């Protein structure tokens, strides 16, 4: 399964998902050209919020509040014994929603990560804010499981670097359920109508 992205591996392991192998091979190493653009009948502005399934909603409320500084908008019951909680880091009603996971918790699956997401990326304003986030999480005893690193050729060939990446500074850590979180800054823009990488530096992205 070498060369297949982590978020593709799980679907490949499910019966009848052979098509994912072909898609992985098709898109491996490709850059986006004008002919690859999808028809755009509407414009998505941003990712508005992320829903995360957790094993203990109250524990996760405390963690996202005390470690990442989110504010609890509200907590409500869900189903017979579950709960859901809306949390925010802007003036939006919510940016992250926590849900009780319906699967029974065992020692084997406790820290496996309970959703199909490979990671959740949280953007900060600039390098100064990124360094403050890194220092703050370390002070709070959070283990940095990957990074700090720079995604792209400027980050070298170290483990975990996305060589065709955006130039963003990143580091990764886990929440109490093993959900993988990223804090990043300085992601480059790709203006509408342009391809990435630009022709005048495309050779830099060839290993």
Average of per-residue pLDDT values: 77
Number of continuous helical runs: 4
Structural class: alpha/beta
The Rg value, from CA coordinates, equals 19 Å
Biggest sheet, spatial arrangement of strands: 1-4-3-2
Strand segment tally: 8
CATH architecture classification of the largest domain:
Roll
In the CATH hierarchy, the third-tier topology of the largest domain is known as: 2,3-Dihydroxybiphenyl 1,2-Dioxygenase, domain 1
The percentage of residues in β strands lies in 15-25%
H-E string: HHEHEEEEHEEE
What is the CATH domain class of the largest domain?
Answer: Alpha Beta
Q: What count of structural domains? A: 2
CATH superfamily of the largest domain: 2,3-Dihydroxybiphenyl 1,2-Dioxygenase, domain 1
Taken from the alpha-carbon principal axes, the silhouette is: globular
End-to-end distance: 20 Å
| Low-pLDDT residue intervals, each spanning 5 or more residues | 1-27
Helical content band: 10-25%
